[in-house]
Amino acid sequence: xxxxAWVQTDRKSGGLGDLNYPLVSDVTKSISKSYGVLIPDQGIxxxxxxxxxxxxxxxxxxxxxxxxxxxxxxxxxxLQALQYVQENPDEVCPAGWxxxxxxxKPD
Length: 107
What we know:
Blueprint (H helix, E strand, L loop, with lengths): L1 H7 L21 H5 L3 E2 L4 E2 L1 E6 L5 E7 L7 H16 L20
Antiparallel strand pairs: 1-2, 3-4
């Protein structure tokens, strides 16, 4: 139910809005265990976010304690930076980079 509420809530109100991909539920806790976010004695998972590319490689991960939420805007910015460096492999995005801002060339 929380996934449904999240996608039915506008981004300006803290939700995701319309998505072009599915959200995953982990009823058996196998995914959270595999990614190291499961708290076994409590049967719950820390707040984990993993961005995985088409080759199955984790490009970004964030794990927060239970009381700390995640920022949809920061996740979107991170995705945009990942897409930018994939399209521009000789460049890097500095901290806080946003589309349209200057990137950097590593030494």
